[in-house]
User: Fold this.
Amino acid sequence: MTPKIKNEKKKKLIELENIHVDLKSSFETINVLKGINLKIFKNESVGIVGESGAGKSTLIMCIAGLELISKGKIFFKNLPIHNLNEDDLALYRSKNIGVIFQSFNLLPSMTALENVNLPIEISGNFKNNKMAMELLTAVGLKNRIFHYPHQLSGGEQQRVAIARSLISNPEILIADEPTGNLDKKNSEDVIKLLFQLKKHFGSTLILVTHDTFVAKLCDRIIRIDNGLIVK
Amino acid sequence: MLLETLKNLTLSIRELRGSFNEFKIVVASIFLGVFIISAVGSISQNLKSEIKNKRVEMLGGNFELSTTYQEFPKNIKSWLEENGKTTHIIELRTMLSYGSQSSLKRRIVELKAVDNNYPLVGKVLTSPFQNVKLPLGTKKPEKKILIDKSLKDQIGIDVGDFVYLGKSKFKINGIIEKEPDRIFSFATFGPRVLLSTQALNETGLLKAGSLIKYKTKFIPNNKNKINLATLNDLVKGTNVSIRSIENTTNNFNNFVDRTSIFISLVGLITLLISGAGISNGVKGYIIKKTKNIAIMKSLGAKNSKVLNIYLNQILMIFLISIIPAIMLGISIPYLFSPIISQELFNTFEPSIFLQPISISFLYGFIICILFTILPLLKTYKIKPIELIRKSSENSLNETSYKIKGIIFILICILCVLTMNLINDKKLSFYILISITGSFIFIYGLTNLKFYILSKIKFRLGTTFEYVRKAITKSNSFARSIVISFSIGLSLLITLNIIESSLDKRITVAINQQAPSHFLIDIQPQQIEKIKNIALSFLGETNFNSQPMLRGRITELNNQLVQGIKVDKEVEWVLRRDRAFSWSNKIPKNTKLISGEWWPKNYDGPLLVSIGDKIAKGLNLKIGDKIKFNILGRSFEAQIFNTREIIWENMDINFIFILSNSNIENAPHSWIATTKNVGQNLNNSFVEKIVSEFSNISSISIEESYKSIKSILNLLIIIINSIALITLVSGIIVLAGIIDVGKKDKLYEVAILKILGATPKRVAYLWFKEYFIIGLITSVISLIIGFFVSYVLLNYVFNIEIYFDFKMICILTLLVPFLITIFSLLRMMGLIMSKPLVVLRSYF
Assistant:
C-alpha cells in the first residue's frame, strides 16, 4: 500500500515506539499489542484496519491516553505522554484529542447541546453556546439541539458525538468504528461528514474501521494483526 | 472560585437529571435519623423554655419552704406573711374510705390541704367546671373535696358521692383536671385528694409523729431584696428546707435532658445504621453511573472533577432529604401541642429553636459524608477504557491517606458533637466506646461468620452450594444486611432478657421474700397493741416493725454536704429528707459487710449503721462522722458498721439505723410489714388495723408492684419501639440493597430459567438465600444480646440471668422471616421476568 502523501514533508504529531499492552486477569495475561512502532503526521488521516481482537481499538486508545501501556514510549509533538499520570492524561485529552466511539457514548441526562458543550465545561473553558450551536448546525442538527439522546436516532446521536469531539478544536480526532452501530445510509452520511469536518478544522484523523471502502478514503491505511502492524 | 463552583454545580445538576429515583433509599435513610434528632431536640428545647416561663406556677410561688412532722416555727411563718404573699399547705398520706357504712372499702390517697390563698399562681381546673378560685366548701355539715381522675377510675366514685377521711365525711365536689403546682404525678403512693386545711384539722389525722409535710409557697413583695440567701439566713438552724424556682426547674430540666439525650442517641444510632443504607445507595448509584463517569473521563475530566460532580449531587440529595426532615422535626412540638398542653401545661406555645436544627443538620451532614466518601471514591477506580472493556487498574491508593485523614476528622467532629449533646464527659465516653465497640463487634463477628461459611469444604447439596456462593461472593451485600439488622435485634434480645430476669426476680421476691403489706404512720402508743393483734393473726415471725423519723444529712466528717463531691449514683441521699430508724438489736435478716453491731445495752455516743454501697458512694468508712438535722436539732453519729441493703426484697430498708439514744423521745411514727401467711388472714389483719386506727395507712406491695410494673412496662415499650425503629432503618437498607442488586438478580433469574428452573424454584432458592442471611443475623444478635445482658445483669443489676425462651425464639425467627418475606415481595417482579428479554437488554 502506498501512502497518499509523503510523510517526511509533514510535521510529526504522534510517535509510538515499541508499544506493548498486556491485559492481566486473575487467570491469564493477554498480550494485546506486541511492539507497535508508528508515526502519525499533522493533518493526515489514518485508517486502521484488522480482524476483531487484533488490537485496533487498543492502539488508538493508547494514542488517546485512555489505555495504559505495559512497555514502550508514546510522544505527542515530541513530548512523552507514556509517563503522564491520570490527571495529566486527562488534560492532554481535553486539549488535544477528540474521541468518537462506536456506541456514541452521550450522557443520557443531557441535551444534544449540553453533550456537545461537555468537554469545554469539563476543562473550564465554556463561555457560551455559540461554538456548540455552529457545530450542531454543521452536522445538520440545528433543530435537534434541545433533544435528549433517547429522542435522537443512531445516526443523529453519532453526529452529536462528532460535534462533541470537535468542540475543543483538537489536533487529533480519534474515531473507533464510528459507523459500527449505523445502517448503510447513516454510515455514509457520518463518514462524509467526518471527513468534511476534518478538512474544515484541519485535524488529524485516526479512524478504526472494518470497512475497506471507508479505510480507502484515508491518506494512509495501517493493518493490525495479532497485536502487530503488518504491511 | 465561586464561578468555578457554580459551573461544577450546573454540570452536577445536568448529570443528575432523571436519576433522583436512584436516591430514594438514601433520602429515606437520611430523613429518618435527622427527623428523630431534630424532633427530639425541638420538643426538649420547647419543654425547657416552657418550664422556664412557667417555673413560678410549677413551684406555686418563687419559693417553697417545707418541714416534715412539725409546723413552721411561728417567727418564720409571720415573717413570710409580712414580706410577701403566702399559701400554707399540708400534705400527708391516708386511707380514704368509701362505700356503704356497713361495708366500707379503703384506698390510700395523698391528701393536700390548702388555705384560702391557694393557689398563688395559676388555677385549679376541675370537672365539672366551677367558676370559683377553689371549689372547696368548708361549712358544716357538708365538707367538700376534689379528687384525682385516677381515683375516680380506680374505685368508681364520682362527683356527688360521699367518702370518709379520718373521722370526717366529705362530699366529692369535682374531679381535678389540673393542679398548677404539680407536673408529674407518677412518683406518688396514691391519687391526689384536695381539701381545705380547716376540714383537715377536723379529721383527726394530724397526729404528732405522723409523716406530715408542711409547705409554704412564697412570693416576696420585693423580689430584688428577698432572695434565696435571705431565706437561708431566715431558716438557719431550723429543719426548714427551701426550694427555689431554680433548683426545681433544674430537676425537671435534668429529666428532659436525660430523656432527650437517650432518644437523640437512638436517632444517632438510626443515622449510623442508615449510614449503611446511604453507603449502599451511593455505591449502587456509582455502579449505574460507571459509563457516564468513563465518558467524562474520556472527554478529559480529572478524577477530582468527577468526584466533585458526584459529591455535589450527594450534597444536593442531602439537602433535599434533610430540609423536610428538619421541617417535620421542628413541627412536632406544634403537632403535639394539644397533648403537651393537656398533660403538662395549661397552655403551651411552641417555638422554633436554632440548636436542634443545627445539631440535626450537622449530624446528618457528617454521617452523610462519612458514609458516602468511600463509595464516591469508587469513581477513581473507573477508567475511561471501561467504555470498551472492564478495567482492572486501581488508583485509589494515591488519595487514600488524604481520604483517611478526612474520615478521621469527621469521626472526631462526630465525637465532639456527641459529647456536646450529652454534656457529661464520662457518660459520653462510655456511650461512644459502646457504640464503636458494638459496631466493631458486630462487624468482626459478621466477617468471621462469612469467612467460615466461605471456607466450608464439604458440599451440602447443589441448592446450599448455590446459596453459600451467593452470599459469600465478594460483591455480595449480605454483610450489610446482617450488620443493619443485628443492631436492632441485639437490642431487642438484650431488653427481653433483662426484662424477663427483672420480672422473675421481682416475682420470686414477691412470692417468697417480700412482705405483703406495709403499715405506715403508726403512732408510738399504738405499736404494742398492733403487735399483739399481729401475734394472734400472723404469728411473731410474719410481722416486722421499726420506728422511723425523717431528717437531713448536713455534714460528712465535719464538711457541709453542699460542698462535697460524691458518686452521682448516691447524690439523692444527700438531696432531701431521709428516713432514719434506731435499734440496739440487730434488725431481722441483716447482713453486715464491715464492722459489727453495737451491744444491746449500748448507751454511749450516737452510732450509725449505713448501707454499704451508699457508704462507698459517699466515700465513708467505719469511724467517719455524719451529722444529721432531725426536727431542727443536730445529731452527730459515728459509723460503726456497714450492711447490705437488698432493695429488691421490698422489705423495710433504712439506709441509716442509729443506736438507741434520746432520739427515741422525739415525735416519731412506726412502720410495719406483714408477711403473707394466707391471703385472707393477711387481708383481715390489715383491714382490722386500718379500720381500728384511722391514722394508719396500708400499702399493698402487690398493688405497688403493679404500678411500678406499669411504669417499667412503659419504659420497655419506649425502648422496644426504639429498637423497632432501628429495624425499620434495617428494612430501608435492605430495600436499597435489593434495588442495587436487581440487575444482577434479573440476569441470574434469566439464566436459571433458561436452564429450566421454574419461578417457584427460583423463589425457593432466594427464600433459602435470604433466610440464611436472616439466620446469621439472628445468631450474631443472640450472641451479642446474651453477652450484653449477662454483663448488665451480673455487674449492674446484680441479679441472675433468666430467659423467656418462647419470646427469644419468636425474636430470633422474626428477623429471618422479615428479611425473607420483604426481599421476596420486593423481587417478585423479577421472578416473573422473561429470560430472553432480560438477556438481550443485559448486554
The CA atoms of residues 38 and 357 of chain B lie 6 Å apart. The radius of gyration of chain B is 34 Å. Residues 701-754 of chain B form the longest helix (54 residues). Residues 393-398 of chain B have pLDDT under 50 and may be disordered.
